[in-house]
Amino acid sequence: MRKIPRRYGHFVFGTIQSGITCAVASAIANAHFVTDGTFASHWLRSYLFSWLVMLPVVVFAAPFIRRLADGMTR
């Protein structure tokens, strides 16, 4: 299996991290649709929208956040 070059690790990390975060957040926000039986469709729609918005934010903010965290810790 071919692997992605290490220099793109930042983008891979951001994609995975934003995907997991958006999945959990949208599941919590749509939990009330479980009783209606429409949870899956509402969750998927909100997950995809939030992930498309969040992915560029995570990818571009991560280097700043990493430097900030490094500056705040030893």
Description:
The protein has 74 residues and is an all-alpha fold. The protein has one domain. It has two helices and no strands. Helix 1 (9-29) crosses helix 2. The model has no long low-confidence stretch (mean pLDDT 92).
Quick tags:
DUF2798, mainly alpha, DUF2798 domain-containing protein, transmembrane helix, transmembrane, 74 residues, membrane
Summarize, please.
The protein is mainly α and 74 residues long. Helix content is 74%, strand content 0%.
Rough shape?
A: elongated
Helicity level: over 70%
Question: Whole-number average pLDDT?
Answer: 92
Total count of strands: 0
Query: How much of the polypeptide forms β-strand, as a percent range?
Result: under 5%
Kindly give the count of domains: 1
Which class best fits the helix and strand makeup? mainly alpha
Secondary-structure element order, N to C: HH
Uncertain segments = none
Task: Round the Cα radius of gyration to an integer and report it.
Answer: 16 Å
* Terminal CA distance: 38 Å
Largest sheet: none
Oligomer: single chain
Summed up, the helix count is: 2
